[in-house]
Structure formats: structure tokens, C-alpha cells
Amino acid sequence: MRRPTMLAVLLGTVIAAVGLSGVALAGGGCHGTITEADETGEDQATVEMVDQCFSASVLRVDPGTTVKFVHEDAGLTHNVGGTGWGFYGDMHEGDTFRATFDDPGVYPFGCSYHPGMTGAIVVGDGYGAGMGSSVLNSGPVAEDAEPAPVAAASGGGGSAIALLAAGVVGLALGAGAVGMLRLRARPSGG
């Protein structure tokens, strides 16, 4: 491969790698093991967002329990989304989100930024619809602030999409540069 073509391919690869690095780090799922906690008998329980994982990823609580989701990942954006409940907006380190689960059932949740970063709240015996319409949401707020009620499905940010777009643009620029260099290097037939 000629030197200019090689440089163009290298440039396109670097732009794509920089643009996609955030997406490549979008793991989750507790990296191999499920963490469980039984907080039945308690008025409040906590799920931490740390190392791109919910801990506990499976939490058992009694009906009427408030679950506090605490963001502890420095430099990462998370959210907590369930079916008909959750906070889909950006949460940053130190933010908390609270949800009170009144009805028995299983309430799955996840972070839309990190595929595999998932969990479930098992309320009571777990039998029931697990419908988010019965969940009271509040947050996110800084830990020392008073929580403010929010809608069950607030809008979220698009940082993962922006990173993916940057990667695609980088690949397109690299491919375009290679094409232009090939056209220039082609001997003119006359």
C-alpha cells in the first residue's frame, strides 16, 4: 500500500476508534456474576451504580419499600429505566433516584447507556403484574438535596448515539480520503 493511502486509512481508523471508544466501554451486567440482596423487612433499600453495574442486580423488598438508586461511577453517565417507571435522563456521580414499589411483582430495570447493565426488583412474593404505573418516582437529585417528583419516563440524553455517529463519520472520512488518493494515483490515460 502506498504511503498516502496508508496514512489515510490510519487517520480514518484513529478517528473511528476515538469516536467509538465510549461505546466500546458500554459494558454492564456485573461482569460475570449476579449480585443479590434481600432487604425484606426494611423501609428503604439501596442499589448502587458502580463499575457499570447495578449492585444488587436482584433486590428483594416488601411492598411499600422505597429503593434508592445511587450513582457512584466517576465520569460515567447512567440512568434507571423500567417498564412504565424509572428515570431516563442523565444521572452523574452523586445523583440519586428513588422509586417506591407498592404492588407485588417483578420490576426489571436497566441503564440505556450500558447494554447488559440490568437488574430486577422483586416485590413481595414476586407474583403480580409488576406494572410501573404503581411505582412512585422521584429524582435524580444530589445526595444532600430534597428529591423532586419526576415523570415516569423522562427524556434521555444521546451521548452513545453521538459517539457512534463520530465513529461512522471517522470511517467515512478515512474511506473518502483513500478513494481520493486512489483517483490521484491513477495514471491518466491519454
Describe the protein in words.
The structure is a single chain. The chain is α/β, with parallel strands linked by helices. 26% of the residues lie in helices and 33% in strands. It contains 2 helices and 11 strands; from the N terminus they run H-E-E-E-E-E-E-E-E-E-E-E-H. The strands form 2 sheets. It has a 6-stranded mixed beta sheet, with no helix packed on it. A 5-stranded mixed beta sheet has the order 3-2-5-8-11, with no helix packed on it. Strand 6 and strand 7 form a beta hairpin. It starts with a helix and ends in a 5-residue tail after the last helix.
CATH homologous superfamily (4th level) name of the largest domain: Cupredoxins -  blue copper proteins
Main β-sheet description: 6 strands, mixed
Shape: elongated
| N-to-C series of helices and strands | HEEEEEEEEEEEH
Our measurement of the CA-to-CA distance between the termini, rounded to an integer number of angstroms, reads 25 Å
Total number of beta strands: 11
The assigned structural class equals alpha/beta
Estimated share of beta-strand residues = 25-35%
Q: How many discrete structural domains?
A: 2
CATH architectural type of the largest domain = Sandwich
Question: What is the overall number of helices?
Answer: 2
Rg on CA atoms, Å:
23 Å
Task: Identify low-pLDDT runs.
Answer: 14-27, 145-164
CATH domain topology of the largest domain: Immunoglobulin-like
Mean pLDDT: 74
Strand order within the widest sheet?
1-4-10-9-6-7
Percent range for helical residues? Answer: 25-40%
